[in-house]
Amino acid sequence: MNSIQANNYLVHFNQNAYEALNKHLRENKYSNIFIIVDDQTNEYCLPKFIPHLETELAIEIIEFEAGEANKNIETCIEIWNILTELGGDRKSLVINVGGGVVTDLGGFVASTFKRGVDFINVPTTLLSMVDASVGGKTGVDLGNLKNQIGVINVPQMVLIDTEYLETLPQTEMRSGLAEMLKHGLIYDAPYWRQFSDLKSIVFDELDQLIYRSVEIKNEIVIQDPTEKNIRKALNFGHTLGHAIESYFLESEEKTTLLHGEAIAVGMILESYISLQKNLITEQEYREIKTIIKGIYDDVIFEENDIDPILELLIHDKKNEYGTIQFALIEGIGKIKINQSVENKLILDAFQDYKS
C-alpha cells in the first residue's frame, strides 16, 4: 500500500513502515531513543517492534499503566521526570508504540519536553490506526473530561502495521470499528455500506478498509488542520459520545466504556437528532440504528444518568460562546456542522435509543 501524505508527514503501511523508519533514523542525528508504551503494548507489541529497529543508538523503554484513567497530567509528569533522569535532550527521539492513549499522551509529552522533541507514532489498535494516527492532536484528560489539555503537533511519521491487530481482543476491534463507521457516515456512503455485513469481511479486506479510513480522515484534516471548519465533521457521534464516556469513567456504579462503545451510542443519538432536524430520512436512521446496534451491546441508561451526562456537554471542546455545537449528518455520507440542539431533543434521543 502506498504511503499517505498528511500535513507535513507521511503515514506508512506494513513493511514499508519499517523501511521508512530506518531511513529516517539514518538521516537524522538523534542522541538517543525513548519508546513510550503501556504495560499491554510492552508485553504484546514491543517484542514485535524492536527487531525492526536498525540503530546503534541507546534505547530506553518508558512504561505506564494501560487505560484511559492514566491519560492525565500526573502520568506526563512521571514521564518528563524519567526523560530528564535518563538524559533526554532536544535531539532525543520519542517513539510511541500503543493505542490512542499512548499516542495522544506520548505525543503531548514529546511536544512539550524541552519545548518539543521529534516523535513517531506506531498505533497498535484499530482505533488508533484509523483515528489517532492522523491529525496531530495530542493531549490528556483533565479529571474525567476528555482531551481538555493538549496541543496540535504532527509527528515525524506514522507507522501502521496491521499485524499488531492479531494481539487485540474482539472488544478492542469493535471499539476501533466505530470510528470507521463514522468515516463512512460523514463522508463516504458506499464505504459505510461495506460494514452492513461484517461476517463477510476477511482480514485482507480489513487492510484496505483501514487504508480508506485513514484516507478519509486525512482528506478532511488537510482542508482544516486546526478544526475551524470542516474538521468539525469528525466530531459526529462524539459530542454526546464523549459525555457518555466521561460519565461512565467517573461513576463508581458504572462499568467503564471503551471509546468506540460510547461513540457508537453517540452516533445513534446524533443520527436521531439529525432525523428530527429533517437532515436524514426515517429509512436512513433505521439503517444506521440497526447496523450499529447489531455490532454493539446496548448501554443501559437509568433516568438519573441523563442529567449528569447533559451537564458534561458544557465542557465539550467544540462549544463556542456557551453554545453546544453538534456535527450532524445530512444524509448518509454528508455532514452539517455548527448545529445547535436543544436539551429536549437530546432527551428524546435517549428515549428513542432505549426503545
From TrEMBL:
<keyword id="KW-0520">NAD</keyword>
<dbReference type="GO" id="GO:0000166">
    <property type="term" value="F:nucleotide binding"/>
</dbReference>
<dbReference type="Pfam" id="PF01761">
    <property type="entry name" value="DHQ_synthase"/>
</dbReference>
<dbReference type="GO" id="GO:0009073">
    <property type="term" value="P:aromatic amino acid family biosynthetic process"/>
</dbReference>
<dbReference type="GO" id="GO:0005737">
    <property type="term" value="C:cytoplasm"/>
</dbReference>
<keyword id="KW-0170">Cobalt</keyword>
<dbReference type="GO" id="GO:0009423">
    <property type="term" value="P:chorismate biosynthetic process"/>
</dbReference>
<dbReference type="InterPro" id="IPR030960">
    <property type="entry name" value="DHQS/DOIS_N"/>
</dbReference>
<keyword id="KW-0547">Nucleotide-binding</keyword>
<dbReference type="Pfam" id="PF24621">
    <property type="entry name" value="DHQS_C"/>
</dbReference>
<protein>
    <recommendedName>
        <fullName>3-dehydroquinate synthase</fullName>
        <ecNumber>4.2.3.4</ecNumber>
    </recommendedName>
</protein>
<dbReference type="InterPro" id="IPR016037">
    <property type="entry name" value="DHQ_synth_AroB"/>
</dbReference>
<keyword id="KW-0456">Lyase</keyword>
<dbReference type="InterPro" id="IPR056179">
    <property type="entry name" value="DHQS_C"/>
</dbReference>
<feature type="domain" description="3-dehydroquinate synthase C-terminal">
    <location>
        <begin position="176"/>
        <end position="319"/>
    </location>
</feature>
<comment type="function">
    <text>Catalyzes the conversion of 3-deoxy-D-arabino-heptulosonate 7-phosphate (DAHP) to dehydroquinate (DHQ).</text>
</comment>
<feature type="domain" description="3-dehydroquinate synthase N-terminal">
    <location>
        <begin position="62"/>
        <end position="174"/>
    </location>
</feature>
<keyword id="KW-0862">Zinc</keyword>
<dbReference type="GO" id="GO:0003856">
    <property type="term" value="F:3-dehydroquinate synthase activity"/>
</dbReference>
<keyword id="KW-0479">Metal-binding</keyword>
<dbReference type="InterPro" id="IPR050071">
    <property type="entry name" value="Dehydroquinate_synthase"/>
</dbReference>
<dbReference type="InterPro" id="IPR030963">
    <property type="entry name" value="DHQ_synth_fam"/>
</dbReference>
<dbReference type="GO" id="GO:0046872">
    <property type="term" value="F:metal ion binding"/>
</dbReference>
